[in-house]
Amino acid sequence: MRSQHGRQDGGLPRPLRHEYHLTEAGRELVPVLMALMAWGDKWATPAGGPPVRLVHNECGAEITPQVCCSTCGNSVTTADVTALPGPGAA
């Protein structure tokens, strides 16, 4: 017999599904996923509208994710940046 949260093999209990927390890597992936959502909403929105809306918790406004400069905070597009070789370039 196993307990509600334990495993039959005596291993450590698994967290309940609603107790899952993203790892640091997962949290850093969220902006990428939000950008992909914005792309899908623009180019492939179903007839009824987007399946998910993103709302800013602080002000309550519905948002569309944007890429911004990490120094000045201004929005950037491909026309605003230049890709240069980095230290790992061969």
Structure report:
The protein is mainly alpha-helical and 90 residues long. Helices cover 22% and strands 4% of the residues. It has one helix and two strands, in the order αββ. The chain has one helix at residues 24-43; strands at residues 54-55, 62-63. Strands 1-2 form a two-stranded antiparallel sheet. The chain starts with 23 loop residues before the first helix and ends in a 27-residue tail after the last strand. The model has no long low-confidence stretch (mean pLDDT 88).
At a glance:
With 90 residues, the protein is mainly α. The protein has one helix at residues 24-43, and strands at 54-55, 62-63.
Topology:
Blueprint: H1 24-43, E1 54-55, E2 62-63
Antiparallel strand pairs: 1-2
Main sheet: strands, sense, barrel = 2 strands, antiparallel
Shape: extended
Work out the number of β strands: 2
Low-confidence stretches: none
Share of residues in strands: under 5%
Binned, the helix content reads 10-25%
Structural class: mainly alpha
Q: Taking all residues together, what is the mean pLDDT?
A: 88
Computed CA radius of gyration, to the nearest angstrom: 20 Å
Oligomer: single chain
End-to-end Cα distance, whole Å, is: 58 Å
